[in-house]
Description:
This protein has 417 residues and is α/β, with parallel strands linked by helices. Among the domains are: 42-187, 3-Layer(aba) Sandwich (Rossmann fold), CATH 3.40.50.300; 193-283, Helicase, Ruva Protein, domain 3 (Orthogonal Bundle), CATH 1.10.8; 316-356, no CATH class. Helix content is 46%, strand content 7%. It contains 17 helices and five strands. A five-stranded parallel beta sheet has the order 2-3-4-1-5, sandwiched between helices.
Amino acid sequence: MYRNHFDLPLRPFENTPDPAFFYSGQQHREIIAAMIRSVVSRRSLLVVSGPIGSGKTTLGRTLTRYLPDNTSVVSVFHPLSAPGELLNFVAHHLAIDPPPPSRLILIEAIRRNLEDIHRQDGRLLVLIDEAQLLDDDSLEEIRLLTNLETAKAKLAQVILLGQPELLDTLKRYEMSSLRQRISSIKVIEPFDEIHTRRYILHRLRVAGGRTDIFDADALNLIVEIAGGIPRTINQLCDQALVQAFDTKKDRVGIEEAAMAADDAGLPVPESWRGKMEERDQADEPAEEPSAPAGESDPQTPPTRLRAEISSPMEAQGPDSIEPEPFRDMSASSGTVTADANDILAVLTGETDQVKKKPVLTWPLIILLLALFPIILGLIFYLTGPSKPNHPYSVTPPQSSHQAERSPALPPPPDGRD
């Protein structure tokens, strides 16, 4: 729906356990590492607990991408409803078909198959999601699976993914035997504010979109409402994108985020409602106070400065003031050109003190270019070195005193007088 509008190759906030969108924050990295360690080290039972929508299923799907190639995974993503169903499902995965009617014989057949897998350096992982829905019979079957072992290693590894109610169940006295087989319990906590923001930006990047689609207020509101739950974050962000698409906006603002929360049935804090109202009032144009009849406003209101600047230009014509200084003054760099002095004078009210700069016209420039060679030649003539006299050049008459002191001229080279 909104993919083309925001130029998104993929929908970034689908509530599906897609490993491609897995957010590897510190907490999730540690849990994935513990799950991999449990399988590779052949530990019997690992429990991962977290609130609804915290990403337990995504963790399970992502885990399968990092396991060794010789690991066989039995994934149970739906609740078990009948006694013996878990063992039958594992037997079906191991090609034990049909399963023996006796539980004892069935467990023995599973053990033999697991021993064959172990001899080939293989592993079997039983991954159970929604484990808080398991009844006592299913939990007992899990205990039986964890009992299958050799003298040195467990033959089957089990990982339970469930809501906090699973931990309450395991605390019961009847579950003491199963609880002793648990190697580790990992609890998924909701994201804090920093990781919530990183989670949103991460999913936008994976989807191939811009990371500035949500403005700061929209992100802050989503962070506060979602409470760090990934499923709620996805729901709010996806619906906010739909709202922005419906209103033809290029970015998601606080209004779209609030409408997404309303659609999801999540309360928007009153402080944010008040902030939106203040923004709406600020966006409305302010009414200019009218001066009493017969009185003039001695001071120009700041809201009319732009009009006061532009109106003299329109009255004087396009040749009076160039429009370029207006663009220079509004530039983000804050620099003001020399031609903007007129505008600054209007802003300060000193229009009478504005002095125009002399303008060099084309005739003056041409005249200077024509006189330049003449002036240059005159300067060279006055400052250049004097030339020596030629032997046959005419010299001015000398006085008798100068003649006695001057040497006689040499005879002509041809012997002529």
